[in-house]
Amino acid sequence: IYSDRINHGGILRALTVPAKGGQTGFMDKIKIYEALPSELKEKIDKLDVVYKMRIFIHKQKYATDKHVTLVKSQPQLDSMELREDRDFPSVVHPMVFTQNETGRKAMNLSPMFCEYIMGMDSKESDELIRELLSHIWREEFAYYHQWSANDLVLWDNWRIFHSAKGVDLGITRKMRRTTISGDYAKGRKLLPEETS
Length: 196
Description:
Layout: E1 9-16, E2 24-28, H1 29-34, H2 38-44, E3 48-51, H3 75-82, H4 84-87, E4 91-94, E5 96-98, E6 105-107, E7 114-117, H5 122-136, E8 142-145, E9 152-156, E10 160-164, E11 174-180, E12 188-189
Antiparallel strand pairs: 1-9, 1-11, 2-8, 2-10, 3-4, 3-7, 4-12, 5-6
């Protein structure tokens, strides 16, 4: 979502599985949208959201409702953070889009990397995003995959949100991920004149 092109799918394979934690959560954007009240659907159907790559989760405004502190970094991540603005300009995606194959609408608000809603003042944008996230984060929408070694999971990245649950410090979780190319062709780079 921090890129103007969204790859079509993801494939994740478990190599080293921790004894506890490390699940991957999946949520269906179509079911999330369909469960919204009608007045909220009408309010958000034509809105656009600005996203920005932020390597570190403690700098992602909406990624979690918990306080997060960076304990330790790695040189590779520090290097990526220095290149965020150059390599990952802000992008715009519709908050809701219609799936071509089914004609059904999907909620396209990803908490990671979300900055604000275009055309709204910051207070109004923040309130609406937080209201929508309280809807998205409902456990009834979530499936958490408990990994076993060599499990392989494939998902439609245009329809499914995914996230990883953490593991305790010192615990190893190794995964191999491959992406399936493609683009839903609804995102774009934020224009310089739109940032003021």
